[in-house]
Amino acid sequence: MKEIIKAVEKIAIEISELLKYGDFSYAKSSNSTGDTQLKLDILSDEIIENRLKKLSNIKAIISEEKESILEINSNADYIIAYDPLDGSSLVDVNFAVGSIFGIYKGSLDARSLVGAIYVVYGPRLEMVVCDDSVRLFRLNRDNEFKFIKNLELKDRGKINATGGTQKGWSDSHRAMIKSLFDDGYRLRYSGAMVSDLHQVLLKGGGLFSYPATPDAPNGKLRVAFEVLPFAYIYEKAGGATTDGVNDSLLDIKIEKTHQTTPCYFGSKFEIDRVKNG
Ligand code: AHG
Ligand code: MN
Ligand code: MN
Q1: So where does this one cross the membrane (predicted)?
Q2: Ligand 1 atom 2: residue of nearest CA
Q3: Which domains does the chain have, with CATH numbers?
Q4: Which of 58, 117, 142, 250 lies at a C-alpha separation of 20 to 30 Å from 271?
């Protein structure tokens, strides 16, 4: 695990440099989900692949930008599923974007997650590392990630980060979102899940949701490398998650590498509201 964290630190610094000075135009290709790729999506994927390939304990990697699993060392333990650049459609407007890593031991199964890491490329370079606890690190002037604090969610927050095409929301979802606003919650949503979930986590609570809609019947966000790593982090931070049906997003079975799901992450109070109305 330590080796993986060190590799992600190097990856974060490299991608951060790329974001500052790289070409942010589109490539001519699209990925498995059908998203048009930026040159930055492809280069970030290469940076991560090259770093992770050097580790002897990595069995395989799965990337948003790769069609299928890439085997590395068949006898090794860890499978890393990652989103190289999350929120990449926002790099043109200079919003904070991120990278997400799910660390699975043995098999690609939600209950095999042993850790998750995400990086936020904002005005500062920050990294949240979760194994048993959830810890915030920040890059200092000497290019070292320094521990800042442990992160914990309160039982209830004030932020409502709400995604998905609103005209396609179900009546029950619409009513739940409205009930939170009626209770005084404030809208916060940038369109990069790393930044939006980072805000909810650092402000101590609230709700992030991306429901099923007719244009995205299984939601938009990808299970293996977006949803499960954050579900792991939120639950370890004392929060809760659901897909609207199951008690936890960690109950989802991964059947396809690019599978999507509706998803809700938050503190306990808001997730209870999602489940019970
Ligand atoms: P990516 O840039 O990796 O494709 O992910 C974008 C995702 C996620 O970050 C965000 O929460 C969601 O797409 C935003 O979608 P909408 O624009 O539909 O709100
Ligand atoms: Mn993403
Ligand atoms: Mn991405």
Answers
A1: none
A2: 87
A3: 2-150 (3.30.540.10), 159-275 (3.40.190.80)
A4: 117
